[in-house]
Request: fold
Amino acid sequence: MMKISLILNGAPVSGQAEPRTSLADFIREDQRLTGTHVGCEHGVCGACTVLIDGRPMRSCLMLAVSAEGRDVRTVEGYHDDETMAAIRRSFTECHALQCGFCTPGMLATAYDIVKRLPQADRRRIRSELNGNLCRCTGYIGIIDAIERTLDHIHGADRRNRKETP
Amino acid sequence: MKPVKFAYERPGSLDEALRLLAEHAGRARLLAGGQSLGPMLNLRLATPEMIIDIGRLGELQRAETADGALVMGAGVCHADVEDGRVPDVARGLLGRVAAGIAYRAVRNRGTIGGSLAHADPAADWPPVMMALGAELDLRSTRRRRRIAATELITGVLSTVLEPDEMIETIRIPHAGPGLRWGHYKISAKPGDFADSLTVVVIDRDRDEARVVLAGRSQTPVLLPDTARAIAGMLAWSSDQSSAISAALNADLSRHGITPSLSPHDRAIHLASVTRAAREALTS
Reply:
């Protein structure tokens, strides 16, 4: 077993794990935060996506020991975040979830799109979502929700935007 | 958790990493971004006794231009290239390729050196480095050597790397203003492994032309006849596809690939080569 210390949702935490433990399993089973979902465990489905040092990454493909000292944010960690509040509101309004299994990963990816790509059009949003599988919604509601959030937050800047490929 | 039990080391320097690798040669695996090794560990296709985590070695993450080349540490991640934190010395080709690798969450972790060393036939970087005439600096505790990117890969998941050796840097020559490129990837969905992937690079000023074909069932290969045929065309027109097809067949026969190709594989390879050629000739 190895001792692991990292920042989880803004607070320092530490725990014990075998080197082979994924960050996703460490978050769920040692830290008891089960909002991070584990689907395919080989990087394809996107359900386990969390923000690490502010960037979305697969927590199923990172060893917990490799995350030593890093800043990890899971779906439980956005209490005072206005951007995430706006994304969640749009997800509700646009029916962007049904069973909810993909949602934690979708929200992490949506957050990255809203922050990194203020000019993203529907086509770009679609392509940015290619690493997150949803088997309920058919994606339209999710794309609508992200577009709505972008319009809401960056409305004035987006009005005269040029379409991006 | 799914992987087998292994020991874990996170060396603080490249020298220390090389020493560990030499000590445990053949039983240890280097972990950089883990976007290929991670799935292999979880699927137990890789069962190492030791993981040597080189993901934080600053020595492997530098990128600078020197001697007419971009000298890039093997630990630079795809997103660094996608976002332009590393200068695109190939007139936009590097950025295009980086942005098309898997998914953003993977690009934030996966490294260029890892992609090369893993040598998945469907990987994006090996054909690009081969087409651009890149060189690789390899290093072990015993020696340093520089090889051409074209010499690295010997087969599916196989390279010339010795068990105690790693890729340290990648050197990509600065493209001149005359460089034209085309890149086309055919896959079941965006971000999926390439069924067929072609990179065309033509630099008439330097009298260079290279075409590399790769894909899920095709280790990257240079296509010299196809390169000559495409470089000989001054502009694109659709009736040139038969010339490309003939040259491609000659190249594939020379590599001994033809007998193993299904009609479907042959069709998608011709499509990706033709579309990459069109892009190179119309850009």
Remarks:
- Chain A has five helices and five strands.
- The interface with chain B takes residues 2, 18-22, 25, 41-43, 46, 49, 52, 55-58, 60-63, 65-66, 68, 108-109, 112, 127-128, 130-132 of chain A (CB under 8 Å).
- The longest helix of chain A spans residues 140-158.
- The CA atoms of residues 81 and 125 of chain A lie 21 Å apart.
